[in-house]
Automatic annotation (TrEMBL):
Entry keyword Transferase: yes
Record Pfam families: Citrate_synt
Entry GO CC: cytoplasm
Active site per UniProt: 271, 328
GO biological process: tricarboxylic acid cycle
Lineage: Bacteria, Bacillati, Actinomycetota, Actinomycetes, Mycobacteriales
Protein name per UniProt: Citrate synthase
Length: 393
């Protein structure tokens, strides 16, 4: 259960197999964090409480949550030199490489919390990451729009602080819309963990070499950026925008997907594990309607998305391949209604996924049987052959 049998009959331990954090049943569309169903957590919990649950394994008492919140609030600021780090990036840089670079740079600025075998240092780096990633994400956005950075204001909650640092200005007060705060908090819960997906497996593999938490998380951010993974929420909006701009009929787009024309995919559909409706997608779809109505931000793209979903769910091509909407299909529409540009969507995914990545990294390190991840291969190259002099080639 902590590895797999290799082709030559050996046993290869790996960094990414058994875990007690998240349970998924792909056939039934079930997702639970530490045993709690995702729909209950999305409805009743908060992102910080779910972060605590994922990392420490239990829902916190009031005192535990208050202490966890206080510890995080004391670390929301960045080292002043690290703020200048953003000056080195071009304004048109995508925020994801800025995010992964800045997170990796934490290894240079906070060298007192790098030792994965020191429980105190693991705890400090955990709190520093949870506290500083929202600040880094907000600064990556401000850099891209050429606006001044705002210091965190710890009288706010984590999500309020992030929204204020992202959309606020020094010249005037900024109060985030409570509906936006509530919806974003819930979306972060939905993204908080998802078993051993591509980016989480990356975090576990990098961490299995005893690399520190900051640099392991930076690896996870890079894996998440891919459009087949976390980058899909941005790709869905680009797909919907293209359909609208080209005034393409939904049925014509579906035909192109089925014929695999120019490699066109229905982004936001399909999943490596779910062969049923992604339970997160169902919650996001409902939220999309609610938040767009509350913000008065009716979006023509939502209508296109719903027509695509309806067409795909009744089409044999998708039914036979068990392709259903995944978490990325509707989230971009909500992020856009909140005021985020498309390029920030995957950054928001990373903000949500951070506690899950941390929980997996800590779990892997706490397991005494974990060895360095070293997957083997099926060799398909040449058999042995002798070197030939260049004159004879
Ligand atoms: C996330 O792993 C996780 O848990 C990830 C995640 C998380 O929370 O961490 O849930 C987040 O990454 C969600 C997935 C977001 N990505 C997308 O929405 C991109 C679009 N989806 C696909 O690229 C694809 O569905 C994957 C990558 C998500 C899964 O690919 P699989 O399981 O390897 O499926 P496949 O490539 O083997 O496809 C099987 C068939 C193929 O057709 P045939 O060769 O049988 O004819 O289904 C087709 C594929 O062409 N197919 C699609 C499709 N996805 C698969 N056809 C059209 N549109 C799609 N989206």
């Amino acid at each position: 259960t902590t590895g797999y049998t290799t082709l030559d009959g050996g046993f290869m331990n790996t960094a990414s197999t058994s875990s007690a954090i998240t349970y998924i049943d792909g056939e039934k569309g079930i997702l639970r964090y530490r045993g709690y169903p995702i729909d209950q957590l999305a409805e009743k919990s908060s992102f910080l409480e779910v972060s605590y649950l994922l990392i420490y394994g239990e829902l916190p008492t009031e005192d535990q949550l208050a202490d966890f919140t206080h510890r995080i609030q004391r670390h929301t600021m960045l080292h002043e030199d690290l703020k200048r780090f953003f000056d080195g990036f071009p304004r048109n840089a995508h925020p994801m490489p800025v995010l992964s670079s800045a997170v990796n740079a934490l290894s240079a600025y906070y060298q007192d919390s790098l030792d994965p075998d020191d429980p105190h240092q693991v705890e400090v780096s955990t709190i520093r990451l949870l506290a500083k990633l929202p600040t880094i994400a907000a600064y990556a956005y401000k850099k891209s729009v050429g606006q001044p950075f705002l210091y965190p204001d710890n009288s706010n909650t984590l999500v309020e602080n992030f929204l204020r640092m992202t959309f606020g200005f020094p010249a005037e007060p900024y109060e985030p819309d409570p509906e936006v705060v509530k919806a974003l908090d819930m979306l972060l819960i939905l993204h908080a963990d998802h078993e051993q997906n591509c980016s989480t497996s990356t975090v576990r593999l990098v961490g299995s070499s005893d690399a520190n938490l900051f640099t392991s998380i930076s690896g996870g951010i890079n894996a998440l950026w891919g459009p087949l993974h976390g980058g899909a929420n941005q790709a869905v909006l680009e797909m919907l925008d293209d359909i609208k701009a080209s005034d393409l009929d939904v049925s014509e787009f579906i035909r192109k997907v089925k014929n695999k024309e120019e490699g066109v995919k229905l982004m936001g559909f399909g999943h490596r594990v779910y062969r049923n409706y992604d339970p997160r997608a169902a919650i996001v779809k409902k939220t999309a309607h609610d938040i767009l109505d509350k913000l008065g931000a009716r979006d023509e793209l939502l209508d296109i998305a719903m027509k695509l979903e309806e067409a795909a769910l009744t089409d044999d091509y998708f039914i036979e391949r068990k392709l259903y909407p995944n978490v990325d299909f509707y989230t971009g529409l909500i992020y856009r209604a909140m005021g985020f540009p498309t390029r920030m969507f995957t950054v928001l995914f990373a903000l949500g996924r951070l506690p899950g990545w941390i929980a997996h990294w800590r779990e892997m390190h706490a397991d005494p049987t974990t060895k360095i991840g070293r997957p083997r291969q099926i060799y398909t190259g040449y058999t042995e052959r002798d070197y030939s002099e260049v004159s004879a080639r």
